[in-house]
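Ex. 9. Protein: Radical SAM-linked protein.
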Amino acid sequence: MKELLSLLPRPSHYIGTEEGSVHKEPASVRLHCALAFPDLYEVGMSYLGHKILYTILNNREDIFAERVYAPCRETGRLLREHGVSLATLESDTDIVKTHMFAFAITHELCFTNVLYMLELSGIPLRAADRGDDLFRWPLIVAGGGCAIASEPLAPFMDLMLLGEGEEMVPELCDLVIKAREEGWSRSRLIEEAVNIPGVYAPSLYTHDANGVLTPLKPDLPTPGRRIVADFDRAAYPEKQVVPFGAVHNRLSLEIARGCTRGCRFCQAGVLYRPARERSLPNLEKILENCLNDTGFDDVSFLALSTGDFSALKTLFLGTMDRCEAEQISVSLPSLRVGSIDDDIMRRLAGIRRTGATLAPEAGSQRLRDIINKGVTEEGLMLHVRKLFEHGWQQVKLYFMIGLPGETEEDIEAIVDLCRKARDAAGRGMPRLQVTAAISPFVPKSHTPFQWEPQISLEQVRERVQYLRDAFRAEKCLKLRWHEPEMSFLEGVLSRADRRIADVVEKAYRRGAIFASWMDHFSIDPWLESLAECGLTAEEFTGARELDAPLPWDHLNAGVSREFLLRERRRAFEGKISDDCRYAACRQCGACDTAAGKSLLPRTPGLEEGTHRNSLNFKQRDQLEHQPNLDENGRLLMPPKPPKATEPPAINSALAVKAVRYRVWHTKEAEAAYISQLELQSLLERAMRRAGLPMAFSQGFHPLPLISFGRALPVGVESQAEWFSIVLREPLSAEEVMKRLAPRMLRGLRLDRLEEIPVNDKSVGSVQETFSLRFVGSDADRRLFMEAWDDFTATDSLMFTRETKKGPRTADIRPLFQVIEWDEHGTLYIVTDWSETYISPMTLARAITPWAEQHQLKIMKLSQMFG
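Predicted structure tokens for Radical SAM-linked protein:
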């Protein structure tokens, strides 16, 4: 793929040279694995599961695990047009030449992206079409949180991995190595693999006309969800790959796994039981090592319910003390109503107060009790008042519509609850806004609501319209909603059987990829494919009989059917089930208890008693919060600061300007495809990894005092790039070079440092020298030279280019001071930017418009300041 880099959109997403990426010689390892994420790079690079497996596998000398992501539509078109196969990022190896192609399936709407990646790799989509020769095609594997309910993907997979992969994936890799070295067939490997706890082989089951599955062998082990029992000892990627841009471009610190809060709609709450926390000393060590090795300036705690971490206050306050000294921000996503106290709120308010998000899920208390949300209206208002008291002015509340037992009064209660949240702010809040975010309820497998119907598209539209009309008349209230058709499709796929596999393939053939992206989504290919297959959506979104077989009954999720039925019954009785972390055991089946051992498959060698909730403290380390109220029960706001618009002061030591250097560097090879915006972030992180004491600006958002020269066009190399950095300690140029040089990315090389006055303004170059080579046939090279000779001989060439302000026409000939050829046919150009600047690539294309961009190799050689 890398031969097409100059043609690809966002080419940096395909070069694989990020800090932390691993490079090995594929021929030197026993197993070459492609870890695939079926979505765009910026989404996949935010996924912690990939980083964990990437680290575990590459820590072994005999395995090379590389990354691959779903290329955007335009890149996919270019690959097909040029006859180039999808390849791994690190070594640019065609996927078809790897030994194992392993997908992370995180949601149902990525199913067609899996087929997209298989086809771009030249691999037959169906497992049955790949034959029995293990060496002809890679082993195709799927895992991730959605794998345990992915029967629509089963005909395309050789194996599916259920549960957590830290222990299971290496065991499977060992078996694949053995199979390849002993010359096994694909079918023998599959039959042997099911003996690994957590591994499921779809081909060993057959289904009838209704999608009901039957094992082909009577003694087949029951596939079950596997967990890492000793979570505190689980491997964690301390030296992570630092992305060239990602949706969540930060350090995600997984503090806990699993949630036993017991929300009856929540599949993740079932599929990650028991609740297991990392110890505080381990988290402190991981945090320190990760920050030192990555240079991230943002830390986010990761858990299904961060606020339920038993030692959250201790961990958060300690992390804040560590990070504030280096201007590293800390965030707490996934906070439950009432889960943080005043001390945490006060420190959070000092970081940022852009907006807070809470999830009551339902408007009425009756419906919240049905779903076991464990949130009262009083508790929600208390939390909202707390937010306003500490300076937040924007609050988002998440709700679902179409929940089991929902009535018109429950929809009206959403509006009423948002009004109460708004009114809790009192007066004098100029930017007050309460946003209700609405999503249709989608019943999921392995939950107490797996038998319930999903409301129709028309019903969703009616309820959204009612809310739109109600919110339109309200001040400071705003409504957002999830696309109904997208939730409808999710509902079809989430409880489907293998009959839907034909629908998935036909929808893909109709162009349905990136279904989770609104600008790519269309329901039409799916409806047409359902009709072509003689199926209806209602077969999969409708209610299920309690005694009828379900498409996932053959898979063990680790909780009993009796538990799910019991919770369903309690739901319609309006009864709450307490969190078993801090209350009585609910006998779900996930833990080893006195009543019996866990239903979960056990890692070989582990004894009974290991599958259980594991917490730092027996009770949460936070105090109950009470807001400040007047005698009438209204919120007393804290006194306003003297100047409300004055930014908070940062530590004065961070703003000291001791010395400033201009850092000259070379940018070549794959690094030429890193954009200027990406480069700025990467260099800042490199300086953090190098331990350079950067000086910071003052204001609402203090930033390192780094400035850059003119942006180099993507794809252009340079031997004369620079940036300047202000340090708060007077380190010598030699010391800075010693620390920073080893931390630079591949393709970026430090050349020299020069000290400049700390308060000098950044200046742009007025003269630059470039070399230009043409890569192509001899005939095209002659045309190229003739075009430049003609241009050299002319006095004027008018050129029109598109700018942000519209088309601009200018004479580009005066921009060229010198145009000379050397004996090898390389063109040397000296440009004059004193009056205007135009990208050198744009200029080269203007003179030879017939030449493709990848045929023009430009290198900046020098630059001169005015």
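Check your answer against this statement. Residues 165-182 form the longest helix (18 residues).
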